[in-house]
From TrEMBL:
GO terms for molecular function: transferase activity. It comes from Roseovarius lutimaris. This is Asp-tRNAAsn/Glu-tRNAGln amidotransferase A subunit. The keyword Protein transport does not apply. Residues 45-423 form the Amidase domain. Transmembrane segments: none annotated. Gene3D superfamilies: Amidase signature (AS) domain. Keywords: Transferase. Signal peptide: none annotated.
Length: 442
């Protein structure tokens, strides 16, 4: 059930700078709050991106904002930002995608939410998440075709940005929960290095891998959002001076799971980038990097059993069957297996330079295929598991459309801590991607 091109041909926001100008021109708090509320509701009856959408709260935030001295000078002055419903918010119910917390009202904002408010952002509400950011999907549909999934677990955040409801949104990633929805929805999704953005006040799934993710329509916009959240203004400014990056397409076993058209498309895009000046090499991952997706899967189960111990203890019967299965797998996992998996991760990190083999950036598909149908779930995380396990900063850029006419993305990654390198490379690649009309696989 496609929405048709009319709904997405002209996004509500052409860029973050447009939002800033519009907000700065607002005559009063009522005009600002009303504008944001109206935009956030654009297409919501069809897409279902929001768990909570509150016009009165939006107006109250606008009133608070315009009362601040020199509010228009703030980094995100008047910009609406979607907040995934695993981030605590004092003025909205925070349910973590679970009926267990249907009426839960946190006492304080998560650190990331507080940071956004200080920067002048206005939060229209909470975007839909899968249950505890794991598997069970919510109501959200893909804005490009309502019969398909927007991905998960950051479903609402990705869909809200893709549909033009908000220019920015935050989500999270433990396996592929930022990269995959960005790919399915045709937007930019950025997962920084571990611990660069605070997780205080965020419901955890697997503490050693949980990471805040950022969504926008361009690399420049996602860099501004991430820079605010991380307290790193240098992330928002290009340091690469237009230098073409060196790229490596490194084949791991998960590559073989991708649809043939996807593998062909990524190779063709890499060839085009090489013609534009990027250095491109190909190769297979060394054996120490071969089973990292399996390591991530097992460690996520073990950590979920610990991080969701309260819910598993008090109301296990109210958890979905897949989440119960994950927790039970973690509870039963032998200590020796956990130790071996942690050791394999440490071994891979100690030799991370071998994975890059002199290249600046790794490149791969963002997902195995286009978005699955809504009834088939939120899609496979296999192509992001290993990079998330290792804490590599990664980003998905929209790269065209597949055989069904749905978006797909390319995934880029840099070594841990090299977020600026990644953002600079992504800026260059974004401007040199081939014309989608020549490379779409419709």
């Amino acid at each position: 059930m496609s929405m048709g091109g009319a709904h997405l041909s002209k996004p509500i926001s052409e860029g973050l700078s447009d939002w800033r100008r519009t907000a700065a021109a607002a005559s009063d708090a009522g005009a600002l709050g009303g504008m944001i509320d109206a935009v956030a509701r654009h297409g919501e009856d069809r897409i279902g991106a929001w768990q909570v959408l509150d016009g009165a709260a939006t107006l109250a935030q606008a009133e608070t904002l315009v009362a601040r001295r020199k509010w228009r000078d703030l980094a995100l002055a008047g910009v609406p930002v979607g907040i995934k419903d695993i981030f605590d918010t004092a003025d909205f119910v925070t349910s973590y995608g679970s009926e267990i917390y249907a009426a839960h009202r946190p006492a304080a904002d998560a650190a990331a939410v507080a940071t956004l408010r200080r920067a002048g952002a206005i939060l229209p509400g909470k975007t839909v998440t899968t249950e505890f950011a794991y598997w069970k999907a919510g109501k959200t549909r893909n804005p490009h075709d309502l019969g398909h999934s927007p991905g998960g677990s950051s479903a609402g955040s990705a869909a809200a940005v893709a549909a033009g409801m908000v220019p920015l949104a935050i989500g999270s990633q433990t396996a592929a929960s930022t990269i995959r929805p960005a790919s399915y929805c045709g937007i930019v999704g950025f997962k920084p290095s571990l611990h660069r953005i605070s997780l205080a006040g965020v419901k955890g799934l697997a503490g050693s891998m949980d990471t805040v993710g950022c969504f926008a329509r361009s690399v420049a916009d996602v860099a501004v959002l991430a820079a605010v959240l991380a307290g790193r203004p240098d992330w928002a400014v290009s340091a690469g001076q237009g230098r073409a990056p060196s790229l490596r397409l490194v084949a791991v076993p998960e590559w073989d799971l991708a649809a043939p058209w996807m593998r062909d498309s990524i190779r063709r895009i890499a060839g085009h980038l090489g013609e534009c000046g990027a250095q491109v090499q190909t190769g297979r991952a060394a054996s120490r990097f071969a089973d990292l997706a399996g390591v991530q899967s097992r460690l996520m189960a073990a950590e979920a059993a610990r991080d969701l111990a309260a819910e598993a203890s008090r109301c296990r019967h109210r958890l979905s069957a897949p989440l119960r299965a994950l927790i039970e797998l973690g509870e039963a996992m032998p200590a020796a297996q956990q130790d071996a998996d942690c050791a394999q991760r440490a071994e891979a990190l100690a030799h991370i330079a071998r994975l890059f083999d002199g290249a600046d950036i790794l490149m791969a598909p963002s997902a195995l295929d286009e978005a699955p149908t809504y009834g088939d779930g939120t899609g496979s995380p296999e192509l992001s598991r290993a990079w998330t396990l290792l804490g590599l900063p990664s980003i998905s850029l929209p790269a065209g459309r597949g055989p069904k006419g749905l978006p797909f993305g390319i995934q880029l990654a840099a070594p841990p801590g090299e977020d600026i390198r990644l953002l600079d490379a992504a800026r260059w690649i974004e401007t040199h991607l081939p014309d989608p009309a020549q490379h779409d696989r419709a």
